[in-house]
Amino acid sequence: MAVVLFNNFPRSGGTILSKCLASLPKTVLISEVNPAGNALSSIREQAKEWYGIDLKQADFGPLVMELYDICRRRGLQLIVRDFTYMNFIPNPANDFKPTNTLDNLNILRRHAEVKPFVMVRDAIDVWISRLKPPRFFEAYKTYVQEITRQGLPMFKYEDFCREPEKILRRICSEVDIGFSGSFKDYITLDKVTGDNLMKPVSRGVRQQIIQPLKRQRLTKSEIHWLNNNSDMIEVNQVLNYPTNYYDKLLEKYPPFWWLKLKILMGKVKGKKPWSDF
After folding, report:
1. Strands across the sheet containing 3-8
2. pLDDT tens across 94-104, in order?
């Protein structure tokens, strides 16, 4: 039995897939952790709060191995969801100096057999979902280059949304996890971190069902900039996605009152991502 390592870039369907995996029988999923920092809570905190497991180790690798040994003795499969953000996005927690490598994978491979896989998403939709930071595609390209270089098995978020059971079966087969229809209970599961904890919650969480999302609307100037972005084009070509904004069905225009409210809230909150990436 190996440690399963789930890699995905923020806003790429990682939360919904994590909930499905955590709903399978005999799985223990630790969510969004990384040697450089965690999204919300630590391995030790999640193991204790979600699974009643007390861990004693301090360093990242030995800590995962301690949990892995406990899971193995109990006949449970450990799944670690990487907080990939820490390794590829400049932010205060990494002193704006990301390593641009899959540190979680590299460290765990020193301690145990690891079965990694990746969930990817159309770069255009990741960028929009991350509030359209101007330098996003630089970082995303580096990430895609690394997962490609490592030769990690990839699954597409869009395919998962269209055929969740079929794609989940393929993922389970790839990493030797027992598949079960219990994944459909994901909607009631709260032992996971991610966009389910955002305020307001994401569109995917609001749907209460796994199905494809239409592309969000952009201004004409944003579309022109996007369609001429060489990094976006390169990334989507590598991942075998279309490279034009209009190559996907768009959301309907929201009511005028909703647009006015969004503009007002933006002015009041001054919302901004952690960095320009």
Report:
1. 27-33, 77-82, 3-8, 114-120, 154-156
2. 999 999 999 99
